[in-house]
# Entry
Amino acid sequence: MAEYDAIILGAGAAGMMCAAIAGQRGRRVLLVDHADAPGKKILISGGGRCNFTNIHTAADRYLSANPHFAKSALGRYTAQDFIALVDRYGIAWHEKTLGQLFCDGSAKQIVAMLLEECAAGNVTMMLGQSVEDVTHGDGRYRVTTGGQTHMVPALVLATGGPSIPKMGASGFAYDVARHFGLSIVQPRPALVPFTLGGEDALFQSLSGVSAEVEVRWNKARFREAALFTHRGLSGPAMLQISSYWQHRTAIQVDFLPDRKPDWLLDEKRARPRTGLRRTLTDVLPERLVDALLERIGTQGELGSLTDKQLRQAGERLKGWPFTPSGTEGYAKAEVTVGGIATAGLSSRTMEAAKMPGLYAIGEAVDVTGWLGGYNFQWAWASGWSAGQAL
Ligand code: FDA
# Structure
């Protein structure tokens, strides 16, 4: 049976990067995945075009119990490094918005590139194989997969988080980490649509309506599009804030992010004969204006409304509270917040302090990026860092 220096569990974004780097450094690497094809989340990402990085990558765009943990890896393997790799393969790309880089063609190009990088490192890949057992003794990890047991000095957990279980996602990395005495920061679905209940459920009639808003929760704020759905709230602004949101709390939505709170008073002075509805439909979709005004209960020409009424309406439109009943859960979550606690890992190599030779990378770790290519950049950077250390 072949001898390996390292086994990497999970042939996703982080696992493939790690395998390629370690392999190209001369390590004999076995990359194992229970799926029948590698990089399935890469293939569906960014609507099939893979938002593979973000040029504004910085540690403050990641959630983690230790906000400093991601700095080292993100600094050692940057967005520019990944762009250089993509360029080396002649993969055309463009910036869509907010520093988000997408393939012009297809996410398949990113998977093909990573597979070629793995081949250049003579990585052995075992697909469609579930991992039956992982134990440790005499300084070696014993991994049983496909009926064979391999003994290796290094084991990398790269099986991601439980988001989108129907694609083979699992909490496997957490189970193995716990088994070896590592702690887990309570995982929860993130970058996930909200559901609305109670009185807010009435907003579901706005399904399909979107608007650029600023959404706030505690100190987190995002200015992007929000979308009403038949179940609640989605769109980039809502997905972003969902990563921060705690159950039974309200998010605040500013429907007029470009307007001052007393904007309606200025409008009254300038155009007293214009209706409030007409004034608002100049900046917001009609269906949304009707729903908001119905709840505010103020209608009529601006000149016929008191300053107090207009000030109150303006304030409500700039700080509309929604208390989601929940989220659409792991089934619809792009990522998982929480995971293997960074306190037990080296930020330089991703190796567990308590278990020499055990590494955790990618989404399995308690580092979660904003929407917009940040999560792949973490997968590349943490995979690269471990790959350099194996
Ligand atoms: P990843 O999930 O990629 O890989 C884990 C691998 O482990 C999988 O191949 C899986 O089959 C395997 N595995 C799981 N359990 C196992 C077990 N028990 N045994 C063996 N193998 C096992 N991010 C971004 O930056 N830009 C984007 O455009 C998008 N878009 C996007 C769209 C959608 C729909 C989703 C669901 C997610 C995104 N993301 C994203 C997030 C991104 O996909 C995610 O952060 C990375 O794929 C994480 O990389 P990992 O390698 O850690 O896990």
Observations:
- The chain is about 30% helix and 25% strand.
- The chain has two domains: 6-188+337-389, 194-327.
- The chain has a mean pLDDT of 97.
- The first helix runs from residue 13 to 24.
